[in-house]
Each structure stands twice: as structure tokens, then as C-alpha cells.
């Protein structure tokens, strides 16, 4: 991420806890870690490929990638 974007911030000290029910109605537990990067533009194809690689590497059903526009005043 640092090579791609020049820097990154990871929020891992106290991961958020997640709970949900799966298709069998069993309770699932998760720890959520947030990784932030700043980018001038969003390359959706790059992010889709990177997300797929991470899902495989980390054995995750789904990794969420979200973008928030920051307005400079």
C-alpha cells in the first residue's frame, strides 16, 4: 500500500468487533481492522483486483473497500 499510494494508516490496536447471523442462523464473530490510504484518483479496476487478492490471501469471504471524497477548503 505504501508503494502504491506513498503511505498508509492502519487502525489495529483495538479492532472493532462485529457480530452477525449467517445463512444457517448461527452467530458469527469478526474483528474489523481499518486501513486508510489517500489517493488523488480512484482506480476501480486496481482496487477490485487488490481486494480479490486480499480475500484469497486472508481467507475472507468478503473484504470491503470504500472511498470517501475529501474536500479541501
Kindly summarize this structure in a few lines.
This protein has about 70 residues and is an alpha+beta fold. The protein has helices at about 1-5, 45-55; strands at about 10-20, 25-35.
Principal-axis shape equals: globular
Share of β-strand residues: 25-35%
Going across the major beta sheet, what is the strand order? 1-2
How many β-strand runs? 2
Rg to the nearest angstrom? 15 Å
Task: Quickly count the helices.
Answer: 2
Query: Which structural class best describes the helix and strand composition?
Result: alpha+beta
Low-pLDDT sequence parts: none
SSE string: HEEH
Report how far the terminal alpha carbons are from each other.
Answer: 27 Å
Mean pLDDT: 89
The biggest sheet, with number of strands, parallel, antiparallel or mixed sense and barrel status, is: 2 strands, antiparallel
Give the % helix.
Answer: 10-25%
Fold blueprint:
Layout: H1 2-5, E1 9-21, E2 27-36, H2 44-57
Antiparallel strand pairs: 1-2
What does this structure look like?
The chain is α+β, with helices and mostly antiparallel strands and 73 residues long. It contains 2 helices and 2 strands. It has helices spanning 2-5, 44-57; strands spanning 9-21, 27-36. Strands 1-2 form a two-stranded antiparallel ribbon. The protein is globular, with a radius of gyration of 15 Å. The protein starts with a helix and ends in a 16-residue tail after the last helix.
